[in-house]
Specification:
The chain has 10 helices and 17 strands. The chain is an alpha/beta fold. The longest helix is centred in the middle third of the chain and has 14 residues. The chain binds flavin-adenine dinucleotide (FAD), nicotinamide-adenine-dinucleotide and FE2/S2 (inorganic) cluster (FES). The site of FE2/S2 (inorganic) cluster (FES) has 12 residues, from loops.
């Protein structure tokens, strides 16, 4: 059993957890993830290690309540336990001195991009961060990105904060203004990562994305996370999760992620109806239910 040391909501149903896990805290590198199981009946879900504290022996994860398991996790508070946490998994991010780098985080993708932004800065890069969300309330880690970046741009879809538009609009604007960018890391919804790849490809800007397929074991054994990169099958959990954006087949990734949509919907509806009273009485009031994925 692994103890939850600290929790806080960063945005509606986006919650930060510090979980006691000293071995993982001591080994993890930027870009790696863990697979957790809330209880013995729980499904296994992958979550990026946003940070770690070797002295406290903790790893930080930031979770968007999107379906049954993530909403169930977001009900947990400091002092509660989860059954399993396995990691660090996946290959660490490739950190080099590229020159001028743009780190692009779409929604909760900002939490996944953050640890790599820290390492890119430490490696001597000039870091431009572009972080976006649907509205002001959903912008996360702006302060942390400011601390690790030379320039930060915020976009919101509804214009309630920062530039009105998508993160990709800001990227296009910078490139059109003649900003020289040597490397792009983009993490967020699949349509966003696909669009970033389309924007940077004509300019030959090396671009890396972090893929988010459905995962089961996270160790290359089940094949659940397979994706197509450079016309070859890869297992994202062991070959990635980061890949050359110009070689990823985003259509296949989208189709595979939709494979269990009806089962996921049923599972979430059952979870919500089982906890209806708690939601109504405000016991789980921070876990707002209205944040629907767009695809
Ligand atoms: P499910 O029941 O599996 O899904 C609920 C609904 O959400 C689905 O019906 C679908 O409409 C939508 N949905 C779920 N996954 C996707 C997707 N990938 N693309 C589009 N729509 C989707 N999430 C975080 O919040 N924080 C992280 O740090 C994080 N890191 C990840 C790292 C890796 C390597 C991977 C592969 C994924 C990561 N995720 C992260 C995503 C997270 O694992 C999923 O959101 C989680 O497994 C969903 O489980 P669930 O049971 O709550 O929802
Ligand atoms: P969201 O749908 O609110 O989008 C966040 C931002 O991404 C938007 O504000 C916009 O700037 C940009 N964006 C969205 N759609 C776009 C498009 N079609 N073209 C260009 N830019 C676009 O995101 P959310 O609800 O916070 O969810 C985050 C997403 O990240 C989820 O879809 C989740 O599946 C995905 N995710 C990815 C990873 C990963 O490793 N890549 C991990 C966890 C979650
Ligand atoms: Fe099973 Fe990657 S999750 S092979």
């Amino acid at each position: 059993m692994f103890k939850i040391i600290h929790t806080e909501f960063l945005a509606p149903d986006v919650k930060l957890f510090r979980i006691h896990s000293p071995k993982i805290a001591g080994k993890r590198k930027a870009g790696q993830f863990v697979i957790i199981r809330i209880d013995e009946h729980g499904e296994r879900i992958p979550l990026t290690i946003a940070d770690s504290d070797v002295n406290e022996g903790s790893v930080t994860i930031i979770v968007q309540g999107i379906g049954k398991t993530t909403k169930q996790l977001n009900k947990k508070k400091a002092g509660d336990y989860i059954t399993d946490i396995v990691g660090p998994l996946g290959k660490p991010s490739e950190i080099e001195k590229f020159g001028i780098v743009a780190v692009i985080g779409g929604g909760v993708g900002t939490a996944i991009a953050y640890p790599t932004a820290v390492e890119l800065k430490k490696a001597g890069n000039h870091v431009i961060s572009i972080i976006g969300a649907r509205n002001k309330e959903l912008v996360i880690l702006e302060k942390e990105m400011n601390e690790t970046s030379d320039e930060v741009f915020v976009t919101t879809d509804d214009g309630s904060y920062g530039m009105h538009g998508f993160v990709t609009d800001k990227l296009s604007q910078l490139i059109n203004e003649g900003k020289k960018i040597d490397f792009v890391l983009a993490i967020g919804p699949i349509p966003m990562m696909k669009r970033v790849a389309e924007i940077t490809k004509p300019y030959g800007i090396k671009t890396v994305v972090s893929l988010n397929p459905i995962m089961v074991d996270g160790t290359g054994m089940c094949g659940g996370c397979r994706a197509t990169v450079d016309d070859k099958t890869v297992f994202v959990c062991v070959d990635g999760p980061e890949f050359d954006a110009h070689k990823v087949d985003f259509e296949i990734l989208t189709l595979r992620n939709r494979a269990y949509l009806s089962q996921e919907k049923t599972s979430l509806e059952k979870f919500i109806s089982n906890h209806e009273e708690a939601f109504k009485s405000g016991l789980i009031e921070e876990c707002k239910l209205g944040h629907e994925p767009r695809y």
